[in-house]
Specification:
The structure is a single chain. This protein has about 240 residues and is mainly beta. The protein has one helix at about 20-35, and strands spanning about 40-50, 60-65, 75-80, 85-90, 95-100, 105-110, 120-125, 155, 165, 170-175, 180-185, 195, 205, 210-225, 230-244. Strand 5 (about 95-100) and strand 6 (about 105-110) form a beta hairpin.
């Protein structure tokens, strides 16, 4: 007789548990699922770059977010007129923030991406830039018409204010040449934005909800001559403001 201890066993024993036993296991499975560690959450991080001695906002600082191996892994951008850069959907993980600008000492800051790191103020002091710089190309204006000769306007929302409590804001635009119309949107491609007469500093209504808002504008020179329309468009300018 072969030894029963050496008999091969089936890979999967049949499920002999009855309905009553499965009902007893169900609450335990639910409780176990409730106690599993939460998934890694993603959030937004706003970085504001200021000059150390004066506290004024620094436009055009290179702000990079990533890891030591790839400092720009999660993106990089030049700070806007109010010194702000917004990174969206940042994972909760050890990260590296590098901020640099010509003529200022580069800042290198480890962050976690956790909710407590949602806002960072970086003070840049004047001095040699150093080897830790994160170099980004200058902001390239966009245009949907080749051969533009209007140049690129400059935009300051509410005179360059960092925040506002009102959705209706003022667009302070330095107009190139003889532009007579503008359009504005929170979409980079200005899709759906209507061309309006450009008179002084026009107003714009921000989207609802608190947070950092980025507004894009474009100008054009528009004329009608003997039934024909002629237009020349500028590049696209942008600025940020936080809606409280």
């Amino acid at each position: 007789m072969p030894n029963s201890s050496h008999l091969s066993q089936p890979d999967h024993a049949p499920d002999r548990s009855g309905p009553t036993q499965r009902k007893r296991l169900l609450p335990l499975l639910i409780a176990a699922a409730c106690c599993l560690p939460p998934a890694v959450l993603a959030g937004d991080i706003e970085v504001t770059v200021l000059e150390k001695t004066t506290g004024r906002a620094l436009r055009g600082a290179s702000v990079c977010l990533g890891t030591p191996a790839d400092p720009i892994q999660l993106g990089g951008e030049l700070s806007a007129g109010n010194g702000s850069v917004l990174f969206r959907d940042v994972p909760s993980a050890p990260l590296l923030l590098i901020v640099s600008k010509n003529g200022f000492v580069t800042q290198r800051l480890p962050i976690s991406g956790a909710p407590g790191d949602s806002g960072k103020v970086i003070l840049l002091g004047k001095g040699p830039q150093g080897p830790l710089s994160c170099r980004l190309p200058a902001f390239q204006p966009t245009t949907d018409q080749p051969g533009t000769d209007l140049g690129t306007p400059s935009l300051a929302i509410n005179g360059g204010a960092r925040s506002t409590h009102q959705r209706r804001v003022r667009l302070d635009i330095a107009t190139p040449s003889d532009a007579n119309q503008f359009r504005a949107s929170e979409s980079a491609d200005l899709s759906g934005a209507q061309w309006l007469p450009l008179n002084g500093s026009p107003s714009f209504q921000l989207s609802p909800g608190p947070g950092l808002k980025r507004v894009y504008i474009q100008l054009r020179r528009y004329r009608e001559i003997r039934g024909a329309t002629l237009e020349t468009r500028s590049g696209t300018a942008r600025d940020d403001i936080r809606l409280e």
